[in-house]
Structure formats: C-alpha cells, structure tokens
Amino acid sequence: MHAAYVSLWRWIFVLALALELPLVFFLAKQRRGRAVLASLAANAITHPALWFFWPRLMPYTAAVVCGELFAVGAEGLALATLGGQRRRGFLIALAANAYSYALGELVMRGIGPALWRFWAGR
Asked: Taking the complete model, does pTM exceed 0.70, yes or no?
C-alpha cells in the first residue's frame, strides 16, 4: 500500500465524518448522541474496508457499488441497534452515505488521475 494513498484516505475519512456525522445528528429524531456514536463506530469499520478491502477484490465500479452497499447496510444496522433508530436507521445511513459519496466524488475528481490509476490497477 502506498503511503500517499493511506495519507489521502485519512483526509477523506475525516471529510466523510465531517459530512456524515452532523447529518446523522440532524436526521436522528431521538438519542442523537447514541446515533452519532453508532455512526462513528460503523464508519471506523466500513470506510477503511471501502478503501482498502473492496478495491483488492474487484474492478473500481464494482468495488464502489459493493462497498457502498456494505457501508449502508453496516451503518444502518449500527444505527438501528446501537443508535436507537430502529425504524430510521437504514434511511439515515443511506442519506448520510449518499451525501458523503456525492461530495466525495467531487473531491476525488479534483484529486486527479493518480487515485484512479491506483484503483484501476494501472
């Protein structure tokens, strides 16, 4: 793993948390603190998996789709069980991940082709 890629991941992870956690807080109707902590814990697992695990298994597009589905599922489950958002957990996770993915794509396009070459294996 390239040190530059790991460093980039750290920055993107912080950005994802900065985007997702306030949205989780806003969308959670009850137990907002627990919802934020559940989302933070789930992100600590799903985000590294999306960056370091899924790209090793499959091509870029498939890795993004599978990784994002995994993230929404795991984070939704965490919100539904740990965060006290039983009915809303998966919807909150879907909204938070869609939001950070969309803004993350804008950031990624700005980073340039170096990351694409890593993901595409070129």
From this structure: yes
